[in-house]
Design a protein that fits this description.
This protein is 24% helix and 26% strand. The protein is α/β, with parallel strands linked by helices and 340 residues long. Strand 9, helix 4 and strand 10 form a beta-alpha-beta unit. Helix 2 (131-144) packs across helix 3 and helix 2 crosses helix 8 (286-299). The protein starts with a strand and ends in a 6-residue tail after the last strand. The protein binds NADP nicotinamide-adenine-dinucleotide phosphate. NADP nicotinamide-adenine-dinucleotide phosphate binds next to helix 2, helix 3 and helix 9.
Amino acid sequence: MIPQRNRRVILIQRPVGIPQASHFEIVESPIPELHSGQLLVRNEFLSVEPAMRGWLNATANYADPVAIGDTMRSFAAGTVIASKHPLYAEGDRVMGMLGWQEYAVTDGKPIRRKVLEADLPLSYSLGILGINGVTAYFALTEIGQPRPGDTVVVSTAAGAVGSAVGQLARIAGCRTVGITGGATKQQLCLEKFGFDAAVDYKSASFETDLAAATPNGVDIYHDNTAGYISDVVVRRINKRARIICCGTASVANWDDWPSGPRIERHLLNKAARMEGFLIWDYEHRYEEAVTRLAAWLRSGQLIHSEEILEGIEQAPGAIATLYRGENRGKLIVRLDHSAE
Ligand SMILES: NC(=O)c1ccc[n+]([C@@H]2O[C@H](COP(=O)([O-])OP(=O)(O)OC[C@H]3O[C@@H](n4cnc5c(N)ncnc54)[C@H](OP(=O)(O)O)[C@@H]3O)[C@@H](O)[C@H]2O)c1
């Protein structure tokens, strides 16, 4: 049966710094009738990304900000429940930029892909087989260019991207060192994600702990945080090190960018390379990454961890949850449609 009502999370106030639940509101609206060329998706999982902070920020970024009153932009995964679109049929599993809402009426353009991995959970298409895994794969292979024996250091190592980078680097034969916040996440890095060493950046001994964990220096640094963590790592880079600039999770307010140690001397002395990474540059190669990641999942070489929040009511506060570091792995919101 086609549902009549949709619940959506809309932006009501533009945040400065980390978006909080109070910046959003959940509204209910009718689901419009499908026109020719449209389809209706029942969203089952909503993604939560650190990048959503940028999608809400009015200052210059790589995407236009979400407008006040609009449904929050996000990846979501779900099932097609009605279709007047030639490429999609009822029952297809899809993922794409479908928004923080229970149902999406779309012309198909926001859909990134049909999810064809029927043996793997649909939610994985938002994490290890989605933006996080694909980011880890291309950032590491294209910019990091790992070689067996390299030491690879990763920040936000217990998170979705970081845990994947660590595991892919291990598969490539590297020594892997994860940086994360707190002893519980350190254990997670070692015991679940198989890092060779894990260092707590919140500890007073962070700098000496990192030195002990990287006795041969750092060949690749996958940087998801910027800030103090990166200042410490950059001091340990080796000749011809590669620094992947992938995220800035430690910088709370982009309008008040902190000044820090200058890194030019380290780059120069070590003939090192630092390069920004944007997943959007690799959209045309998405399937290549998904195929390889799915194969590693099936063989057990790669594991994926999820932190699941239940119900759309949890979505407005979920970005702040990420920035408090409360997630162990990919943060997603599961929608319950059982009562419909
Ligand atoms: N460039 C791209 O195309 C691209 C694509 C996808 C993701 N990314 C970036 O990749 C990074 C990780 O994304 P994700 O989705 O995998 O998120 P995630 O790592 O699952 O979650 C974010 C993590 O950031 C850490 N964090 C929060 N505040 C911090 C602070 N002040 N200092 C240091 N760490 C802090 C927390 O881990 P701890 O508890 O360990 O601190 C938190 O769990 C983000 O920076 C994101 O923007 C970039």
